[in-house]
Design brief:
This protein has 160 residues and is of the alpha+beta class. The protein has a single domain, classed as Small Protein B, Chain: A (Beta Barrel), CATH 2.40.280.10. The protein has a seven-stranded antiparallel beta sheet with strand order 1-6-7-2-5-4-3. The longest helix has 25 residues.
Length: 160
């Protein structure tokens, strides 16, 4: 085992970035794992600095899935840089792409990116089918979150 490395970094999953805002803005239904086509400098930037998924979404064009709006920062010392917000191709089976395309066209759902991680040294994205929440749905989410927080605080006070 390498010095200073744990099992998660060597062969298992290592979370790079998570889109926490997605679960507040959208009702997430189904998720699936997709591979990601990257250049060398992008992989290094993901490992070192991570990425921004807050504006990331998936578009299907001519039978291929593309992630758009995902920001991978450029390393200042990289010999060959890359564009920070370029479109990146997703690696999915044709059946998966057709299923996603059908859901977005028929049911009016959106494809969003919820997580970016490394699995066995391959960059992966978690793509989710989602429907946008209305303003009153967001208020309900805030109320539920506040209620659970208050209940947890009351339980902690009761134990003392």
């Amino acid at each position: 085992m390498a010095k200073g490395a744990d099992k998660k970094e060597l062969g298992g999953d290592r979370l790079v970035s998570k889109n926490r805002r997605a679960f507040f803005d959208y009702e997430v239904s189904d998720t699936l794992e997709a591979g990601l086509v990257l250049s060398g400098s992008e992989v290094r930037a993901l490992r070192v600095q991570g990425c921004d998924l807050s504006d990331a979404w998936v578009d299907i064009q001519r039978g291929e899935a593309w992630v758009k709006g995902m920001a991978v920062p450029v390393l200042p010392h990289a010999a060959f840089g890359h564009e920070e917000k370029r479109n990146r191709k997703l690696l999915l089976h044709k059946e998966q792409i057709e299923t996603l395309r059908g859901a977005t066209e028929r049911e009016g759902m959106t494809l969003i990116v919820t997580k970016c991680y490394f699995k066995n040294n391959h960059a992966k994205l978690e793509v989710a089918l989602a429907r946008g929440k209305k303003k009153h749905d967001k208020r309900q989410s805030i109320r539920e979150r506040d209620a659970t927080r208050e209940a947890a605080q009351a339980m902690r006070r009761g134990r003392r």
